[in-house]
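Is this the right way to post structure tokens for a design question? Let me know if I should format differently. Anyway, here goes:
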């Protein structure tokens, strides 16, 4: 197990933030006790992986069957080493970029988390998010791994949530701009309607975080009051220990956020800028693939259509958006993507944007779990 990240020297004006982070670390349960139960079920991970693979293969077979199967195979084989190399580099950059964003943001919370820990946490997020419905398991898995490597839960949660909020800001802000300036012919009316609804939903989600950050005590009281009024189970849940721990964690998170914003505004805003480049790289994967397949496309049209595609991926209920992403992606891109190229395009696009990063994340996760299990066994022997 990687040892806890060390607090190094900080300027005088930032000592309060370091001291607050240290006090939160003391009040938070240690990684040894708080990470015994992983936030995912191995059986569900296996089931999610099977669903992802099965639905993806079915969608790809459907897309390849729409055109000439042999022609699309020849398209795949004709992809030049240059574009193949660029696509692989983009997949690696996406994998490392998410880890770099976590590492960069962690400085705002008084902790210098190791870059390798952040990369491994991001990889865990990608893999577990890819095998759970609507990516629901990715965030908790990321926080779990960071806590297992010596980071307090409030700091791990704050770093992860700020990165997540940056993603929402990019999807909402970038989407609003694209909806205003993109040509009408680039995407169907049904996808424009979906995009408008999705922007509104994400904006509400973003606003929902504000009360917990600005007024955590009032938010906790309101939440407890709502839970208390639930029929049958409300009173029992309101008096439950986990709810109290959740409230304490929310208060610690709010305290860290206030201190980080006071001392590190530019670093938090810098995390948003990094998110812009992370998603720009994601969106340009489709442009590289289409150029590699010999299609003369406009980069702006591809960026707009990819933004719509990622909204579909974001809300898709299947693990890894398997099946839905492939079919919806081909449908969204149809204004600039010939049907004869759809199967080859979708296979390469998803490989560079998801399959390869997921494979890397799965390898990182297995390695990290094996190391953590060995460390736990070593501690048991020492105690015995």
């Amino acid at each position: 197990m990687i040892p806890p990240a060390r607090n190094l020297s900080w300027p005088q004006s930032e000592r309060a933030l370091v001291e607050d982070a240290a006090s939160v670390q003391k009040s938070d349960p240690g990684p040894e006790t708080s990470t015994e139960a992983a936030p995912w079920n191995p059986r569900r991970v296996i089931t999610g992986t099977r669903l992802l693979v099965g639905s993806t293969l079915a969608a790809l077979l459907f897309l390849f069957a729409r055109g000439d199967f042999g022609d699309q195979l020849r398209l795949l084989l004709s992809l030049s080493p240059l574009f193949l190399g660029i696509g692989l580099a983009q997949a690696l950059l996406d994998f490392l970029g998410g880890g770099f964003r976590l590492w960069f943001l962690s400085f705002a919370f008084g902790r210098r988390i190791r870059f390798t820990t952040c990369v491994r946490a991001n990889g865990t997020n990608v893999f577990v998010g890819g095998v759970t419905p609507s990516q629901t398991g990715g965030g908790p898995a990321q926080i779990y791994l960071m806590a297992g490597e010596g980071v307090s839960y409030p700091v791990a949660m704050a770093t992860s949530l700020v990165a997540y909020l940056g993603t929402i800001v990019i999807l909402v802000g970038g989407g609003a701009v694209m909806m205003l300036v993109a040509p009408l012919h680039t995407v169907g009316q049904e996808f424009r309607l979906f995009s408008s609804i999705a922007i509104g939903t994400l904006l509400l989600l973003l606003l929902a975080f504000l009360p917990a950050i600005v007024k955590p005590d009032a938010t906790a009281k309101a939440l407890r009051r709502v839970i208390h009024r639930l029929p049958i189970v409300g009173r029992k849940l309101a008096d439950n220990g986990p709810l109290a721990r959740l409230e304490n964690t929310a208060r610690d998170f709010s305290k860290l956020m206030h201190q980080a914003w006071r001392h590190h505004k530019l670093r938090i805003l810098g995390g948003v800028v990094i998110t812009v480049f992370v998603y720009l790289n994601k969106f340009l994967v489709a442009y590289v693939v289409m150029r590699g397949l010999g299609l003369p496309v406009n980069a702006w049209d591809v960026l707009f259509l990819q933004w719509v595609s990622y909204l579909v991926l974001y809300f898709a209920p299947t693990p890894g958006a398997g099946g839905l992403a492939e079919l919806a992606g081909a449908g969204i891109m149809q204004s600039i993507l010939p049907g004869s190229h759809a199967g080859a395009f979708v296979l390469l696009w998803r490989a560079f944007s998801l399959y390869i990063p997921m494979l890397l994340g799965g390898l990182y996760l297995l390695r990290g779990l094996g190391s953590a299990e060995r460390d736990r066994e070593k501690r048991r022997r020492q105690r015995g």
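Format looks fine. Someone answered above. Worth noting: The radius of gyration is 22 Å. The mean pLDDT is 78.
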